[in-house]
Amino acid sequence: MNFxxxxxxxxxxxxxxxxxxxxxxxxxxxxxxxxxxxIEQELGCKLFQRKIPLELTYEGRIxxxxxEEFSGKYEEMQQEFGExxxxxxxxxxxxxxxxxxHALMPKILKEYQDKYPNIEIQLVxxxxxxxxxxxxxxxxxxxxxxxxxxxxEVQVRDFYEExxxxxxxxxxxxxxxxxxxxxxxxxxREEKKVTPLEKCPFLMNGQKDIxxxxxxxxxxxxxxxxxxxxxxxxxxxxxxxxxKNMGACFSPxxxxxxxxxxxxxxxxxxxxFPEDTRYWIRFAWLKQSYAQTLITHxxxxxxxxxxxx
Length: 309
What we know:
Helix content is 51%, strand content 22%. By secondary structure, the protein is α/β, with parallel strands linked by helices. Among the domains are: 1-86, Arc Repressor Mutant, subunit A; 162-278, D-Maltodextrin-Binding Protein, domain 2 (3-Layer(aba) Sandwich), CATH 3.40.190. Strands 3, 4, 5, 6, 7, 8, 9, 10 and 11 form a nine-stranded mixed sheet that branches. Strands 1-2 form a two-stranded antiparallel ribbon. A hairpin with a 5-residue loop joins strand 1 and strand 2 (55-56). Helix 1 (3-15) packs across helix 4 and helix 5 crosses helix 13.
C-alpha cells in the first residue's frame, strides 16, 4: 500500500462512484478498480458495498479515518519541505458561491499565482450552507462564506461586511405606480420597509441562500404574500431579469455591482434596509487543517489587496 493507493481510495469515497472518481483522477475505471481491490486484498476486507451509489462498509469507514490522516500528513510534509527548499508546492481547495467568486476571485488568484506559481487552486462553487458542510467533511480547505453559527472545530476570520439590498427597475416602478412612483420610492426609503411593493413581482433566491432568507424576512415583516415570478439559485440570472424589469430582486450589493453594468444600475432604484440585512463574509477553515500555511498565505494576500491603507 502507498500514498497513491490511499489517494485513489479517498477519491472513490468522496465521489461514491468508480466512474466519476476515475474521471477526476484521469485514469481508467479498470485501473482504479484494480487499485481498490489491491487495498482490500491487503487488508483482508471489503471497503465498499458495490451498489449505486457506492457505500462504505464498516471497515471502509474505519479505513477512511486513517486514509484522511495519512493524506493530511503527507500534504503537510510536502508543504513543510517545500518551504524549506523555497519551492513550495501543493493544492488549496477554496469553496465560494459562484457569483461571489465572479466578483472577488480573479483579482485575488492573479496575485496569489504570481507569488506562489506552484500552488494549484481548486475552486468549488456552491451555496453558503453546503460550503459549510463541505468544509466539515474536509472536501474543501477554505470557505469564503457567511458563517453565522460558531463551530468548535472551525476557525473563522472576518473578510468584509456584506449588505443585501433590493433592486427594482425604474421602468417597472413607473408601470406599476404611475404618477405616484416618487411617493412610493420616498416612502420605502423613509420607512425602510417593502410594504409599498405589495403589488410588485419578485425574483427570489431560494431559502437556503442568505439573500433569499433576508428577502423573505423583510416581506414577512411587511405582512403580504409576494408575487414570486421567478425563484432560483443563480443570483446572476435573477439580476439580469431584474435589469429587464421583470421584478424586484434582493441581492448582496457587492454582487449586484459585479454583475450589472453602470448603465443597468443607473436604471434601477436601490433600496437599503436596517442592520439585520448586513452580515459578515468570513474566511473559515478547520483548526486542524493540513493546508494551514497555504490558507494563511491566501488570506494575507487577499487582505492586502482589499484593505490597503
